[in-house]
Design a protein that fits this description.
heterodimer, A: mainly alpha, two-stranded antiparallel ribbon, B: alpha/beta, Rossmann fold, six-stranded mixed sheet, 35% helix
Amino acid sequence: MNRTMKRLLTGKDSRQGRWFFALLIALAIIVWLGLTTERFLTSENLFNLVAQAMPLIITAIGMMLVVLVGGLDLSVGSVISFTTAILALGAPALISIPGVFALAACIGLINGLAVTRLNVHPIIATLSMQFIVLGITRILRPVSGGDVPQIVIDAVAGSFYGIPLPVFWGIVTVLIAWKIIHGSRFGLHLFAIGGGIASGTDEATHNFGVADKQKILLAYVGCSCFAALAGIFLAGRIVSGDPNVGLLFEMDAITAVAIGGTQLSGGVGSLHGTVIGALVMALLANGMNSANISAFVQTAIKGVILLLVVGLQSRKKMGL
Amino acid sequence: MQVAATRIGGDVKKRIEMSGISKAFGGSVALKNVSFELLEGSVHALMGENGAGKSTLMKILAGVHQPDSGEIFRDGRAVTFATPKEALDFGISTVFQELSLLANLTIAENMFLGREPTLRFGTVDYTTMNRETTKALAELGLDLDPKTMVSELTIAERQFVEIAHGIKADASIFILDEPTAALNAADVEVLNRHIRRLRDEGKAIVYISHRMDEIFEICDMVTVLKDSELVATKPLAEMTPHSLIAMMVGRELKDLFPERNAEPGEPMLDVENFRISASSEPFSMTVGKGEIVGMAGLEGQGQQRFLRSLVGQFEPFGGKVSVRGKALKFPVSKDGGIRYLQSLGVGLVPEDRKEEGLFLTLSIGHNIAMGLHSRKSEFSLADGYGEKIRETMASMSVQASGPAELVSALSGGNQQKVLLGRYLAAGMSILLVEEPTRGVDIGAKSEIYRLLRDFANKGGAVVVLSRETIELIGLCDRLYVVHDDTIVSEMAAENATEHNILDAALSRQASQVRLETTP
């Protein structure tokens, strides 16, 4: 077995982690669904699947930014709901769309400041933020409703040369994320900082002149902004503001990131792994729906999956 | 030659001057009014026992810490470094004592961390990075792929990469904080060549090391710190190793090493037909009562794998091992090995005391009692070991406020004593010691040698491996030279020199013949 194969299979000595298993699992589910479910492999169903998966793909990519630096963001679900609520206020798109990104950036900034300056554990910092944002969202819009700008609805529902627009959302998001994660100094520094945190040499990046706190802060800002993007997409799909639409999204996003081979302790992971991980989650949901498994059971199954996936990642001591 | 002129003439340019530096961490004073100046084209040794303040002084120069008072001057102008990056931008490059490479990055990414070249749109320029890294590594005689992940490198390779990282920078001042801790003699020579080159280019180098021979080989000036204060700065030509040690410890050190034992007793540890791997030659060795035996040779030739396989931390190909005449169940299992060997009175003192040996967040008392508790059954009540712990601390002369002090607060030497104390308190009769004095100052070194010798004299047996050949020669009674996963030669430590150990290690062909004729 040569080095490349070994890296792919074990994820050892690789910065991309064990994404290969996620790919195999995704293919296995596709084969299984293709064989057991009628009309699974139709373009209509597949496009629909992409549209269903898109909010999770976008959120998971954002989540990956903070996971790379050994953090977590539990507030993304609330940010998604919040975004739909803001968009449904009826303001013109020209104001409301930049507005939701600005608000998300502020939320991320506070998360990042709490983690880097106040040294609050990411789980606590973002759990608090989850409740703060959820509360505000429920004040703004206790039940679903409101008017989402038409351009948002068109951007999600339309198609271009017969290809549904969600596919382009996916392509653009992945390109932007690739540039951030794998094509910039910022991304490399996220890996470096996370690697330092994971191995207990977090002084190293700082000593080499990397502005570590600032970059961790930016990772939280980025995470919230990706969640806002997912929120815009969802608002377009449900054509309203809904305080509950983002519920439990943080769970799905963390699970998707973990399935994709990203180490929750930081420093190891890949964009393609995360996208595949999100697709695995969407495929599973699709499969469980077509097998008529109740939503409650599905929630429990997702919990089991997260525990298994994270439990199987190697760590020496208790930790993420 | 201008460089030569500045070296000889009196008018040597000061690269940097630190004046009246003081620094305290919480309540403990790390530096008291220390002044230090660095001359162009010189290698300046910074010496002192661990905890004397060397690292703190250099961390202030590197911008990691900021002084409480005092100033740093560059060409007569006061400068301040708020962050390591500012110091780096100013031309001060540091090879830190702790291995500080990131395992999940490649060599090239580590080398350029914090100052990666970029192409248009901010893309990292990997082509340039990899090319420059290959060049920098080649200069140090290293043939490594810059795209290799650091997690795949050996300790010595990592250290070299770290050095390459430090001296690659376009800096005028280089701080090398114990750069040779994990290097063997041949590698040290390569490093020295580079230090001389930098010196001849007119750079200023600060060299921190505990190895006396290196200091005299490479340095021009020496500054000695003791108890956070400056003792003196002198040209090294005026010093002898003896006077330097006296300056550091503040007293004459008659002899670093205790006397050898003349007569080894009955065999305590017997190894026969041992093969580390399937392809390695079988070997045998024995350690007698009262004996200290060293495993010498170049680094990473199987010494550590051999010791570790005795306690089950490495799976050897095969062999027979008996402890005090009793045959061991061999190979030893990985999970219960340490415990099993401890029940036979064999303790492994691991190389990395912080990672593998001590519980840094626990007290001295707990760390010592750990060895005593480990011989009890799972559900037995914990005995009060207060008396035993105090005795051990006293016999090891651990310098601490008391058994309740946290081990993390101790200096390296005292930590090492606590680690040894754990095994001695637990009544071990055979010690397998890896790197007994790694990162330990000279005063504590001498004490540790004495402790090991006392242990042997009381009927114990010790196997030592160390990268410092001088230490092995001075401390041990007998040496086995290990090369290529097998023992190639055996010699009395009294007659051994660094030269003939290297010789024995490298003339493997001849010794192979000898081994085959041994029955």
